Amino acid sequence: MVKKLFIITGEYSADKHAAGVARELKKLMADDIIIEAIGESNLEKEGVRLFLNHDKMGKVGLSVKSIFEHYFIAKKTIEYLKNDFKPDLVLLVDYGAFNLQISKQLKKIGIKTFYFIPPQIWASRKHRLKTIKKNVDKVLTIFPFEKEFYEKENIPSVFVGHPIVSELPVCNNRDEFFERHNLDKNKKLIGIFPGSRTFEIHYLLKIFLETAKIIEKNRNDVQFVFSKALSLKDDAFSVPYKTIKSENHSLLAYSDALILASGTVALEAALYETPMIIAYKGPLLFYLIYLLVRNIKKACLVNIITKKDYVDEFLMFKAKPSNIARDIELILDDKAKREHIIEGLKETKKMLTDSRCVFNVAKIIKKELSGE
Questions:
Q1: 290, 281 contact by CB (below 8 A)
Q2: What percent of the chain has pLDDT over 90?
Q3: Contact, 33 vs 3, CB < 8 A?
Q4: CATH number given to 174-351
């Protein structure tokens, strides 16, 4: 009997991870499964019919407009699932604020729900556990330490591994990369990643640009390349340094040091064992709220996973160009500091060794749909 799965994503990265799950499910179940989704090009390439795309989903903030947009998207989706598609299972992927709210409606209409890449309740807003316990049937975690949070609440959960472990491309041709982008092989490369969202660019780009100018003024053995995230428009920002968009993983792998906006990119850098600092700045009100709801004081995933302070964090008022520039120069010149950071990156890799994440998720879904 053909089973139906509906996937809900809200951003490009979740769409990419969900596409991997869809691909593996089609291998496992062939013509015995129909998959539809809220998603983007990655899911569509896997033959998944899109009910809605991300035009209205990838909004960050608490504006009246975004709240109303999300409300009507949720209403439209629930009506479709209840009256038309009638899925056997809904897979929520990341995008916590929206997906937690829609999980309540899914529970009311009796649709079984799994959550892959759940909200980071271990970092902040622990009260969300109550919503998950009440409305989500199974949580598929991407960090091994997450399980303890759910087990304490008797919430069914499985550690499936982190999806980026298998998604990251192998980068082993540094010379070719340098030649193609006219980079000087005799100078150290500093990769700069100012974020993947418009508001991150607004708050961090100026800081990172000034940091580069300070370092450049202090020494003549460095060069800079800015990364432009795939989720950003080509004209999202302009800087007087080389900018690349489609080879961000190569930049992570081949840089001698990295200046990163806090986020998953730090985990990607860790898997390439490239020393880094992370910085983050946003609206003061959001930061004050964050201080009230956070469960841990660390922001970098490397530090959170290892429970140690390997990567320096420059958050809000500490995110000053002079501070960041000083730290980057230490990474370049201080062998002991550099080796200390790399030690932490290697430790992080060991804790995320499962490279079959999306296959594990697909296998769990197949087992559920097949009643095994």
A1: no
A2: 71
A3: yes
A4: 3.40.50.2000
